[in-house]
Amino acid sequence: MAMHRCLFDQIKGRIQPGDIIAFSGKSNFSRLIRLATRSVVSHVGIVRESGNWIDVIESVVFEKDPVSGEDIDGIRCNRMKNRVESYDGFVWWLPLSEKARFNLNQEKMRQFLKITEDKKYDMPQAIRAALDIIEENPFFDLSTYNQEDFDAFFCSELATAALRAGGVIKNINSSEVTPANLCAFKIFADDYYQLKGRRKPLDEYNEIDPEGFGVL
After folding, report:
1. What is the pLDDT of residues 120-178, one digit of tens each?
2. Nearest alpha-carbon partner for 94 in 31, 23, 7
3. For the segment 169-193, what is each residue's pLDDT rounded down to a tens digit?
4. Closest by alpha carbon to 180, among 154, 199, 142?
């Protein structure tokens, strides 16, 4: 596995639907996520469209709309170039592997993302999914376990569910997947790219078989 550092404009022509964009922010909420999941990653989005415009779909909370200044709570579409330039923190591009891209039905992925457009951020499930350190103790298994529920979405739940809808992952509980888990799933190319921030490789990148993850 190799991480490369580059600017968005240097690789924008290679980004494709289904690729994951990983973030590490500086807010208190981002710090809590990193602490709970023992990871440098605090947030993820998924590429819906590529070409002249690269659209990234994310479920966000505690952020403000750069135009209106209003608080954002839930799923939104961002132009990737604007998102990278304005983000206060680290950004990585994780391209899907050739196998994952071959299996991806882009239209089914887009259809799934379309029906989620008005959903809110799922804070309770985000918190429980992040408590992996507690789940090491069997006593806490039921109290922190998430039954898959798509009434609302946290960021990695949305991206994972979209990849499952598109056929990249067959059997998984998307509501149990943290940003760190998603980046560790073995669905990505060997090489990945840091687009912003001082050099910071991802821990456990592309190492874990996602099939059956979080399924009881």
Report:
1. 999 989 988 887 555 554 444 555 788 898 999 999 999 999 999 999 999 999 999 99
2. 23
3. 999 999 999 999 999 999 999 999 9
4. 154
Q: Which amino acid is at 34?
A: R
Among all chains, which residue has been given the structure tokens 């509501």?
A: 175
Q: Distance of alpha carbon 54 from its chain centroid, rounded?
A: 16
User: Which DSSP symbol is given to 17?
Assistant: T
Helix (H), strand (E) at residue 103: helix 98-103
pTM higher than 0.90 for the full model? yes
Strand partners, 79: 55
CATH number for 2-196 (one of 3.20.20.80, 3.40.50.720, 3.40.50.410, 3.90.1720.10): it is: 3.90.1720.10
Q: What is the dihedral of CA 15, 111, 69, 121, to 10 degrees?
A: -110
